[in-house]
Amino acid sequence: MGVKRKNPVADGIRFVKEARKELRKVSWPTRKESTAITVVVIISVFIAGFYLAVVDWGLSRLVQHFIR
């Protein structure tokens, strides 16, 4: 009854304008920084994968030892 409805189109336009304004404030990484971070992530994934593979192999051997 006394509730005023907002204009969804105006809300959408305002959101886009505010989002663009905020994105201008972001300090984006350089290509070199992005490459370095990507390399670190890839190496970390390989290390974690290797660790999990070793633990899985060890636990599998342990369980097989008790089952046989």
Could you please describe the fold and organization of this structure?
There is one protein chain. By secondary structure, the protein is mostly helical. It has one domain. Helix content is 81%, strand content 0%. It is built from 2 helices and no strands. It has helices spanning 8-25, 31-67. It is elongated. The model has no long low-confidence stretch (mean pLDDT 92).
Overall tally of domains: 1
Measured by DSSP, the beta-strand proportion falls in under 5%
- N-to-C series of helices and strands: HH
Secondary structure class reads: mainly alpha
Main sheet: strands, sense, barrel: none
Uncertain ranges: none
Helix content: over 70%
End-to-end separation in angstroms reads 75 Å
DSSP, total strands:
0
User: For the CA atoms, what is the radius of gyration?
Assistant: 26 Å
Helix segment tally: 2
Overall mean pLDDT: 92
Overall shape: elongated
Put the structure in a nutshell.
The protein has 68 residues and is mainly alpha-helical.
Please render the helix and strand layout as text.
Blueprint: H1 8-25, H2 31-67
Task: Based on the model shown, name its key terms.
single chain, 68 residues, mainly alpha, 2 helices, 81% helix, elongated
